[in-house]
Amino acid sequence: MDALLPFTPTEIFVTLLFGGIFLYATWVIGSFTRDAMVERDVLKHGEDAEATVLELRDTALRVNRRPVFELLLEVRQRGRASYQARVRKRLGPHQSVGSLGVGMRLNVKVDRDEPSKVAIVGAVMTAPVGAFVLQGMPSAGDPVKAMQDLQSLMDKGLITPEEFEAKKAQILARI
């Protein structure tokens, strides 16, 4: 009987197990690579639109220790009826979970030929950034509160990391 089976059942099981794990990992990495390529293309060539977050779900996936979320968006584009699209979004290095939320309005880009391909540009700004920063800043006597408020603005996507660093330098210069 041993001459008929060149491998033991344990060796066959281990080979199938590791083969399955390898195939699954290849599929996951490939899907993230495809998503990144589509997002880059849509950001470069897509049309401007606006979207509202209808649902937000943590996928339990982490890329470089940063969570990946799946968002259901209601997309509104000029000349088209509003529609829903699903997007996976990985949080950036200076974003927190609080920077995304149900009801949040986003600027997005939409693929001309396939509207279901949507890339998030950022949060919709309802006033100039300077207005948020100046109105949100406490008096010059409380730099700790000013830094906390500034961090909160960046976490919510209301200011860019560059604007954050510029204002942070101003606050630190006052100390």
- Portion of residues within helices: 40-55%
Report the end-to-end length measured between terminal Cα atoms: 83 Å
Strand content: 25-35%
Segments where pLDDT lies below 50 for 5+ residues?
Answer: 127-140
Element order: H for helix, E for strand: HEEEEEHHH
How would a crystallographer describe the biggest sheet?
5 strands, antiparallel
* Mean pLDDT value: 80
**What is the rounded Rg?**
23 Å
- State the secondary-structure class: alpha+beta
Using the alpha-carbon principal axes, give the shape: flat
Total helices: the number is 4
Helix and strand arrangement:
Elements: H1 9-45, E1 47-63, E2 66-76, E3 83-90, E4 105-110, E5 118-123, H2 129-136, H3 143-155, H4 161-174
Structure at a glance:
The protein has helices at 9-45, 129-136, 143-155, 161-174; strands at 47-63, 66-76, 83-90, 105-110, 118-123. The chain is of the alpha+beta class. Helix 3 (143-155) packs antiparallel against helix 4.
